[in-house]
Design goal:
Elements lengths: L4 H22 L11 H14 L16 H13 L4 H27 L1 H14 L5 H4 L3 H17 L3 H12 L9 H11 L2 H29 L2 H9 L1 H9 L2 H10 L1 H7 L1 H11 L7 H19 L9 H17 L4 H24 L12 H11 L6 E5 L4 H6 L2 E2 L27 H11 L4 E4 L17 H10 E7 L2 E6 L3
Parallel strand pairs: 1-2, 1-3
Antiparallel strand pairs: 3-5, 4-5
Length: 493
């Protein structure tokens, strides 16, 4: 054994600790707020219903996301207790850190340990340098763990397991399916012609096993017809509404523009490497294509929220790391690159700690917490609550169970626009289900956020919807108004 072995090993451990420390610090805001975005509230309120015996995509909660995220939240709550969001954020952090490890392995196999450490560091920075929604324990952060594992095994030509993990990634978000393009290119670029047929059979086997296993799990925890109705049939309408030209720019301005501009150093490095296409190995070319299809997947839904681009952050981190490892920069260019990465990352860290994640407000105490405090103080843990609007955070912050299977309405819709509110969660078959839920689980309180125009809901008063218009005047009476939000209690209570 060489005398220099131990110093080298110690240096590697120091660099590993440094990378882990930087990533951990940048992700601190995950543990300074109970909720980081409204999606976390949706997943939480549905998971609580599931843990009370309800079937997902039926009485146990309805959403248009695949089941993976609900399985994770349900499992966390079974271990830690209902609405234990710190535990959920810990699970999200572990998924992010696990993806860092996988990206390290991918990049190390391509270019060595230094490049691998850079890729892990870059992914940790990219997933933190943005508004609080980026830090949430959302579908994308969990999807990236099996998606990165699929790419690693693809590069190692383990086709069955690569395909199986690709299906597992799709259990968190439908856009993972675009990586089938990589699977096909991997078979063509990485396998010898004589072995492609057998490799393709193994990949197909992984997909079949994954889909069959997923169907069994949905059957055990939810409703297969409901899964088809709410996650498959809704996709076309959801995407067509989101791509309305009048709203694309406003969403892009708040998401894709800062994602590209704030992290321009990574994009410049990745593009510089991609322009050397002819000199790249087949494995690195596959990583370039990974970034392209990931951006397509991130944009496909048209909603353009910042956290959608986590799907592209994995390959972007790998390509930027390969570029920095391959290209030799002058000291001044290196300093500028470090500054270009560090300044926005630190700025976002300060913002994410100080601002209310649900309103981005610095100036006053969050009013939604006052409403939640009223709900908690005027109901018991066994009572059900119904919130009209798109504010499921009130269920989490008050620690109360929702009376309906729908955690919110007009989700993902351009609320406040002149479009008719014909969203997937206001379709004709929604209202009989809502009426049935409210009859079976009579809410002790009804919370109407539309008078306060929370989440641009002023155009959709309860009086415009027959189920609610007939329920509230006869069975409920107004008991409080907080920040414009009107609360109704059941008559006789």
């Amino acid at each position: 054994m060489s005398f220099s072995y131990f110093p080298k090993r110690m240096a590697a451990a120091v660099w590993l600790a440094a990378v882990g420390g930087v990533v951990a610090v940048l992700h601190l805001p995950e543990f300074t707020h109970r909720l980081l975005d409204g999606d976390e509230a949706i997943y939480s309120s549905i998971a609580v219903l599931m843990n009370r015996g309800g079937s997902l995509y039926a009485a146990g909660g309805v959403d248009n996301k695949p089941p993976g995220i609900f399985w994770v939240y349900s499992a966390v709550f079974k271990l830690a207790g209902d609405y234990q969001m710190t535990a959920v954020h810990a699970a999200g952090f572990v998924a992010m850190a696990g993806t860092c490890v996988l990206l390290y392995l991918i990049t190390r196999d391509l270019a060595g340990r230094r490049a691998g450490l850079l890729a892990a560091l870059f992914y940790g920075i990219l997933t933190a340098a943005g508004n609080p929604r980026l830090l949430a324990s959302n579908t994308e952060i969990f999807m990236m763990l099996p998606l990165a594992a699929s790419l690693l095994l693809m590069l190692r030509r383990r086709w069955f397991w690569s395909a199986l993990l690709l299906v597992a990634a799709g259990a968190f978000r439908q856009s993972a399916a675009i990586n089938v393009v990589l699977l096909v290119l991997g078979l063509l670029w990485l396998e010898e012609p004589a072995r492609r047929g057998r490799a393709a059979q193994r990949a197909a086997g992984g997909i079949v096993v994954g889909l069959a296993g997923g169907a069994v799990l949905v059957g055990l925890t939810g409703s297969l017809p409901g899964f088809w109705r709410w996650t498959i049939q809704t996709l076309i309408g959801y995407a067509s509404t989101s791509w309305a030209p009048a709203f694309v720019w406003s969403r892009a301005r708040d998401s894709i523009v800062p994602f590209v501009v704030d992290m321009a150093v990574f994009w410049i490095a990745a593009i510089a490497l991609a322009t050397r296409w002819r000199a790249l190995t087949a494995q690195v070319r596959l990583t370039v294509v990974w970034l392209v299809v990931a951006m397509i997947g991130s944009l496909a839904g048209g909603h353009l929220s910042w956290h959608y681009f986590i799907q592209a952050m994995g390959p972007l981190a790998v390509l930027a790391a390969l570029a920095f490892d391959r290209f030799r920069l002058r000291k001044i260019a290196t300093g500028a690159a470090i500054g270009g990465i560090a300044v926005p990352a630190v700025a976002w860290l300060a913002f994410d700690i100080a601002a209310d994640p649900l309103t981005y407000d610095f100036s006053r105490p969050p009013q939604h917490q006052e409403v939640a405090a009223y709900i908690a103080g005027h109901t018991s843990s066994s009572d059900r609550v119904f919130v009209w609007g798109d504010w499921p955070a009130l269920y989490v912050e008050s620690d109360r169970v929702m009376a309906s299977r729908f955690p919110g309405f007009l989700r993902g819709f351009a609320r406040g626009s002149d479009l008719p509110p014909n969203n997937w969660d206001t379709a004709p078959d929604v209202w009989p289900l809502l009426e049935s839920d409210l009859a079976a689980n009579q809410p002790t309180l009804i919370v109407d956020t539309s008078p306060a125009d929370w989440s641009d809901f002023a155009k959709y008063p309860m009086t415009a919807y027959p189920v609610l218009a007939s329920l509230v005047p006869f069975d409920y009476h107004q008991v409080a108004t907080i920040d414009g939000v009107v609360l109704y209690a059941r008559n006789g209570s």
